[in-house]
C-alpha cells in the first residue's frame, strides 16, 4: 500500500511506541528484502499513547472514543490543538478538562484574529495621514518587529527540534496574540502614529496566520464563522440553545451567571448589551464524562 501511494522510498514512516521493536524492525527487514529502495525511508517516528486513567486507550480495553464522537461536542480545531499541546512522543493524557482548555485556547486565538480584522478594516483602503511618513519610510513598531522575529525564529527552532509544538503554542504564539490585542486597543484610542500601528498589526496578523496554517490550525471558514461554530459546540455540551441563553434575565440574578458558567457559558456586559461566549469550566468527571454526554 505504501509503495502504491508513496513509492518504495519516502521520508517518514510512523507508528506507536509499541511498534519500535520488533514490529518495525521486522517490517524494515522484510521491505528491504523485497524492495531495496525501501531502505531509503529517512525517518521512523513513533508517537506516544493516548491514555485514559493512566491506561492506554484501545479497542481491546473498551476505553476509546472515535473522532466522530469527540467532534460532536468539540470543534475539530480544538481536538487538533489538544493533540499538539503534548509532544508527539509523549503520552497524551486524554480528559474532558483538557479538551475544554484546548477549546478555550482556539476560541481565544480566533477571537483575536477577528478583533484584528475588524480593527484593520477602516484602515485597509485609507490613505496615510499628511502628518505621518509615507510610502517606504513607514515602519512597523520596534516591539512588533521584535515579536515577529521571535515568532518566526521560535517556530523554525521548535519544529526543527523534533516538532516541539507544545512549546511553540505556549510560548511565542501566546506572546504574539497578546501583542495583537494590545495593538487593537491602541488603535481605538491613538491619535498619532496610527498608520504605523496599522502596519504593525497587519504584519502581525500575516505572520501568525502563516504559522497557524503550517500547523493546520487555519480554517477555510471566516473567523466569525469559526467562532459561531465553537459557540454552537459549547451550547451542545451545555445542552442549551441560543434562545435559552438569550431568554435569561441577566440583570436580576448573579446566580444565573454562575449556573451558565458552570455549563461553559460566560456572560459579559458590553455597553448596554450582554453578550455570551464559551468559557473553560472545571469538570468533576473526565473519561466517563464524555461517555455520559454521548449516551
UniProtKB/TrEMBL annotation:
| Biological process terms in GO annotation | cysteinyl-tRNA aminoacylation
Its needed co-factors are: Zn(2+)
Keywords, in A-Z order = ATP-binding, Ligase, Metal-binding, Nucleotide-binding, Zinc
tRNA synthetases class I catalytic domain location is 1-102
Q: Which domain of life is it from?
A: Eukaryota
Q: Name one Pfam family in it.
A: tRNA-synt_1e
What are the record's GO terms for cellular component? cytoplasm
As one GO molecular function, the record gives: ATP binding
- InterPro entries given in the database record: Cys-tRNA/MSH_ligase, Rossmann-like_a/b/a_fold, tRNA-synt_1_cat_dom, tRNAsynth_Ia_anticodon-bd
Descriptive protein name: tRNA synthetases class I catalytic domain-containing protein
Amino acid at each position: 500500500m505504501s509503495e502504491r501511494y508513496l513509492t518504495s522510498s519516502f521520508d517518514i514512516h510512523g507508528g506507536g511506541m509499541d511498534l519500535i521493536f520488533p514490529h518495525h524492525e521486522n517490517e524494515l527487514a522484510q521491505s528491504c528484502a523485497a524492495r531495496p529502495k525501501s531502505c531509503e525511508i529517512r525517518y521512523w517516528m513513533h508517537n506516544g499513547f493516548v491514555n485514559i486513567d493512566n491506561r492506554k486507550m484501545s479497542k481491546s480495553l473498551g476505553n476509546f472514543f472515535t473522532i466522530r464522537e469527540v467532534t460532536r461536542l468539540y470543534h475539530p480545531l480544538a481536538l487538533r490543538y489538544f493533540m499538539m499541546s503534548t509532544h508527539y512522543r509523549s503520552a497524551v493524557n486524554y480528559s474532558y478538562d483538557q479538551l475544554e482548555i484546548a477549546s478555550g485556547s482556539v476560541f481565544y486565538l480566533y477571537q483575536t484574529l477577528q478583533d484584528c480584522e475588524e480593527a484593520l478594516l477602516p484602515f485597509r483602503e485609507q490613505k496615510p495621514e499628511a502628518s505621518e511618513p509615507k510610502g517606504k519610510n513607514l515602519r512597523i513598531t520596534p516591539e512588533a518587529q521584535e515579536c515577529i522575529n521571535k515568532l518566526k525564529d521560535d517556530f523554525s527552532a521548535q519544529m526543527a527540534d523534533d516538532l516541539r509544538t507544545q512549546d511553540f503554542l505556549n510560548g511565542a504564539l501566546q506572546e504574539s496574540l497578546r501583542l495583537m490585542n494590545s495593538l487593537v486597543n491602541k488603535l481605538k484610542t491613538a491619535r498619532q502614529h496610527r498608520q504605523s500601528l496599522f502596519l504593525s498589526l497587519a504584519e502581525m496578523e500575516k505572520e501568525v496566520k502563516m504559522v497557524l496554517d503550517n500547523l493546520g490550525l487555519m480554517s477555510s471558514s471566516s473567523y466569525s464563522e469559526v467562532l459561531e461554530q465553537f459557540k454552537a459546540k459549547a451550547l451542545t455540551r451545555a445542552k442549551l440553545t441560543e434562545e435559552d441563553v438569550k431568554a435569561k434575565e441577566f440583570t436580576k440574578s448573579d446566580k444565573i451567571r454562575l449556573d451558565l458558567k458552570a455549563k461553559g457559558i460566560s456572560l459579559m456586559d458590553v455597553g448596554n448589551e450582554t453578550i455570551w461566549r464559551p468559557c473553560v469550566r472545571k469538570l468533576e468527571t473526565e473519561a466517563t464524562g464524555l461517555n455520559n454526554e454521548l449516551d
